[in-house]
Amino acid sequence: MFVRHSRALVWRDEAPTTSAASAAPRRRHLPPVQVIWARKPWRCAAGICIAVRLRGGELEVALRDTPSPRWVPAARALSPREADRWAAEGF
């Protein structure tokens, strides 16, 4: 229902009110995304790896095969041996 005040009309809901804490769902706290860009890209079977990031506890690799980097799970793009070699060669 609209209620007239001296300066404006405002909507007033006649339904029983609930507390703000119970009405609004809580947002999950997500840790910040950490990205490390490679100084030396690494060529693998999936493409050219240019960065790694830790997002939501999962490691992802950026592939340079599209105009913008495509993020894929690290286990899908690199074998553990390739990941170790990339890190050792001056990631």
What secondary-structure arrangement, pairings included, does this model have?
Blueprint: E1 2-4, E2 9-11, H1 20-23, E3 34-44, E4 47-55, E5 58-63, E6 70-73, H2 74-77, H3 80-88
Antiparallel strand pairs: 1-2, 3-4, 4-5, 5-6
Helix percent reads 10-25%
Main sheet makeup: 4 strands, antiparallel
Please write the string of helix (H) and strand (E) elements: EEHEEEEHH
Task: Provide a count of the helices.
Answer: 3
Helix/strand/pairing category: alpha+beta
Alpha-carbon distance between the termini?
A: 63 Å
Explain what this protein looks like in three dimensions:
The protein is an alpha+beta fold and 91 residues long. It has a domain at 30-91. Helix content is 19%, strand content 40%. The protein contains three helices and six strands; from the N terminus they run ββαββββαα. It has a four-stranded antiparallel sheet. A two-stranded antiparallel sheet has the order 1-2. Strand 4 and strand 5 form a beta hairpin. The protein is elongated. 10% of the residues are buried. The mean pLDDT is 80.
Short synopsis of the structure:
With 91 residues, this protein is an alpha+beta fold. It has three helices and six strands; from the N terminus they run ββαββββαα. The protein has a four-stranded antiparallel β-sheet with strand order 3-4-5-6.
